[in-house]
Each structure stands twice: as C-alpha cells, then as structure tokens.
Amino acid sequence: MQASQRISTMLGGGSDGWEVFARARQMIAEGTPVTELTIGEHDIRTAAPILQEMHRTALGGHTGYASISGIPALRDAIAERVSARTGVPTRRENVIITSGGQSALFAAHTAVLDPGDTALYIDPYYATYPGTVRGVSARPQAIKAHASEAFQPRSADIAAHAAEAKSLMINSPNNPTGVVYNRDTLNGIAQVCRTHDLWLISDEVYDTQIWEGMHISPRSLDGMAERTLVIGSMSKSHAMTGSRIGWVIAPEHIVTHLINLATHTTYGVPGFIQDAALFALRQGEAFETEIAEPFRRRRALAYEILKAQSVVGMIPNAGAMYMMLDIRATGLSGEAFAYALLDAHRIAVMPGESFGAAAAGHIRVAMTVDDAAFTTALNTLCNFAQKLVTNRAAAATS
To answer: In this structure, is residue 116 part of a structural domain?
Structure first.
C-alpha cells in the first residue's frame, strides 16, 4: 500500500533543509555541547504569569471542547489589536484562532487554492512554505529576490508569473533574512495582486520585532482587505512557541469556510490555552517590547562585531530574530560552511540553501542565545571565516 501523492510529495522529492539542525541536535543528545543559532526559539521560556493563568483556567474547568472558531473574547482582542495597529476595521468575524502559525498557513492556502492551482511565494522563504503549498495539492512557484537588493522582491518579477497563479505568499518581517518590506515594495506587490486578481497570504508573525522603520500590513493598502489573509501567532510576540496558538485574519466569508475546515481537522484550540493567550495580549505593547528587546540588543552587538571585519557580509536586518550573513568570500556554500563550523567549533547555524536558491552562499543566524554566548559564537564564526579565506588565498598562490 502506498501513501497518498499529496503527503508523499510534500518535500518535492528533495530535502526539508533541516539536516544541519538535526545533526546538531544529535550531537547534543550524545553529550556534545553545541551553541545553537538555528531555530527561532526564544532563550527565555513563556512568562510565569501567562503559565499561571493557563494553570488557573485549566483547573477552573476550561478543559473541554472550546469554541471551534476561538473563544469570543480572544477573537475580539485580536480584532481590536489589528484595528489599532493597521487602521483597518476588523471584527470578530474576521478572526479564526488556529493551532499556531503553521496551522494558519495551511488553513489559509486550503481556503484559497484548488488542486493544481499555482501558489507564488518569495525566495528566500521559511522552509515549510513549499511543502505547505504541496500539502494542499497546489503547485509552488518561487519568485527569487536578490541579496544585492537586500532581498526586497521586485513587483515585476512577481507579475511575470502572476497570470498563471491564484495566490501569493509574503513574509515581512522576513524569516530568514530579517528584512522588512518597505512601502514601495508592498505597494508594488499590492498592485500585482489587484491587477492579476491574486489572493495575498501575508505571514506577519514577527510584526512586534521591528528594529528600523515600521511594519506595514498589506491588508491596510487600497483594495487589499478583501483579498488578503493575514497570519498571526503568539509564538514570537509573547514567547509562547509551545502553546501552538495563532490566527488568520480574513474576509468574513473566508473565515466561515475556515471554521468548517477546523471542524473537520483540529476541532479548535484548547480553551485554557486561549485564556492564557488572552491574558498575554492584555499585558499590552510594553510586554511585547520586553520580549523583543533581547533581539534588538543582540542585533546591535552583531553590528559592532561585523563592522570590525571584512569577510562576512550582512544583509541589513530591520526586523525579526535572525541575521542573514554572506559567507561567499570563503568559497564555501552555506551548507558546507555550516557543517564545517559545526564540526570545528560546535556552533550550529542554518545554511542559506535551506531557505531557497536565492540565499545560496549565505547562512541564517538566529539571535537566540544569551548575549555573552551570542557574542562569543559570532566572533568565532567571523574568525573561522577569516581563516578559510586566508587558507584559500594561500592555496591559490602555492
């Protein structure tokens, strides 16, 4: 008996891009210390008051089936938050609560794509994007952004593939690059979507991690609210990664369909987790700033280290908890560099190739260890790259 084509082809016959991460975790399991600069996991745990609220409401009895669409108070709180931050009137009926951001991405693509439809997304991309598209029996099509342009996607490149497509997925602030799409970029994207009648799926889970400029939700642009699905999550903004709670903001008729989908899949999110999420949101922006602050601080540390050397280049990151570093001067691919760094210094980073062809020759560094460990690891990384360049030059002249 064979598995379905849908599930057996989710990776497109290739890798899922996580081999270096898996090797680092295996080393740790075997007792070898590794500094992990790989996944987007805070180095702090969920705040104790949030967990205490989760505990309180669970003991209070909110452990049965919760409303499939999400508890009304949480949907209202998210709608109010989105309205205040974007200026777009948003109601409870525009919100469905999901089992994390990844579940929201899968649900959003299910809502707007039929089998065989083409779904566009920007390269570099978060590693699950193409598999998510294949998982709904659609056809993924990457649109390459360019390191020389700070990975701001060109609307003309999107438009060149838009006629054959049904949807476009974007992610700003961006994982893996840390780039925040500027207004010109987003206006260009919006124009392509309107011209070619594309659904836009906007992954905005890093919207509280802005280091320079501002976050603009494309749903706030002219004519975009009726064709945009926004993905949100408590994972990054409130360090609630393991709680698996996110949402989709969408036109009301799409939310109605998503509720039907949830009825036949997840059957909702546990009520006590939703209560904890509501409590967390009610702590306000000051709490979100506190959660984001370590990454702002480490970004500043990284800039000082990187400007003191000339081998490792940096894509300016205006948001998110990542940096994209250019290591092409070493002569190695991102993957080869990541394996060599792990073997030589027990420092784990993600190869750029894990996130698409556009990031080849780069590595993604997650700013997710304490300041001292991060500083040591980044200095070691730069010294390692310098040694590779020196050895390469010596070999060329021998």
So the answer is: yes
